[in-house]
């Protein structure tokens, strides 16, 4: 059964799905017929209607051609409202709004920072505040979006989250000592949950130097999807060849990881050093 995250009924993404279903049923079209027009699967149309899949611009344009301007609905305008929402770049929303909330397993590697899914508000705020051209409003929107992402950890059936971080991360100063103590306390607390595992990776692990990434295993036969970081724009893909390369790199990094018990002792030691 597909897990559907809690959604804001006033959001343009939810409105997009509601209007799609209303017009489709009014035209007596099955989901498969709409899928053929969009060049996707019936499951993807269902996910659009449930607002657990973010529409693309081409989805919106094709739906406007299919249904015309019936009822004053413009899917292109709804799409523009979706992409105009604050809280992060457009390329990341498909991951944060569609992939993470439905994932069964999330595997994460970060050689530089605490991964966003486990960051405290103060840690995240300091990172965002140092971005080029950061304004107070932009920073606040980004912090709120990051905190919303973390709600998936509070669900009754959260995803299994397997985190690898470089040994230097607990010692890398972000903010002041108070921010770091709070962040490391958060890690030690969150790892008490049975669905979260954190392992520290030996700093001599050269395969990890290529950069941060996440791997999502999805339900219902949906393909494994990865998100790879870059300074300008992350890359989200389900391309089989690229996914396999990332999965192999994750396993290569994991070979350098300390057992979780030893990893937590290392985090505890780093926490005591932030005085």
TrEMBL record:
PROSITE patterns (alphabetical): HTH_CROC1
SUPFAM superfamilies: lambda repressor-like DNA-binding domains (SSF47413)
Annotated ranges, domain HTH cro/C1-type: 20-74
UniProt name for this protein: Helix-turn-helix domain-containing protein
Species classification: Bacteria, Bacillati, Actinomycetota, Actinomycetes, Streptosporangiales
InterPro entries, sorted: Cro/C1-type_HTH (IPR001387), DUF5753 (IPR043917), Lambda_DNA-bd_dom_sf (IPR010982)
CDD domains to which the protein is assigned, alphabetical: HTH_XRE
Domain of life: Bacteria
Family annotation (SMART domains): HTH_XRE
């Amino acid at each position: 059964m597909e897990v559907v995250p809690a959604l804001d009924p006033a959001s343009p993404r939810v409105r997009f799905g509601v209007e799609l279903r209303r017009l489709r049923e009014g035209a007596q079209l099955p989901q498969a017929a709409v899928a053929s027009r969009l060049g996707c699967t019936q499951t993807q149309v269902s996910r659009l209607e449930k607002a657990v899949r973010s529409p693309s611009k081409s989805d919106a344009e094709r739906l406007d051609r299919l249904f015309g301007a019936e009822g004053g609905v413009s899917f292109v305008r709804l799409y523009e409202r979706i992409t105009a929402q604050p809280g992060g770049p457009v390329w990341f929303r498909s991951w944060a709004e569609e992939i993470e909330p439905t994932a069964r397993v999330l595997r994460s590697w970060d050689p530089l920072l605490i991964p966003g899914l486990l960051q405290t508000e103060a840690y995240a705020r300091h990172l965002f505040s140092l971005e080029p051209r950061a304004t107070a409003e932009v920073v606040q929107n980004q912090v709120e979006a990051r905190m919303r992402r973390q709600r998936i950890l509070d669900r009754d059936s959260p995803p299994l989250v397997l985190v690898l971080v470089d040994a230097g991360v607990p010692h890398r100063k972000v903010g002041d000592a108070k921010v770091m103590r709070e962040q490391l306390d958060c890690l030690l607390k969150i790892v008490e949950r049975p669905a979260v595992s954190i392992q520290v990776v030996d700093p001599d692990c050269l395969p990890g130097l290529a950069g941060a990434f996440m791997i999502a295993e999805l339900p219902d036969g949906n393909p494994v999807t990865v998100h790879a970081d870059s300074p300008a724009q992350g890359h989200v893909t389900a391309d089989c060849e690229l996914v396999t390369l990332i999965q192999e790199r994750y396993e290569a990094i994991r070979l350098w990881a300390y057992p979780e018990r030893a990893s937590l002792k290392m985090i505890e030691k780093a926490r005591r050093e932030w005085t």
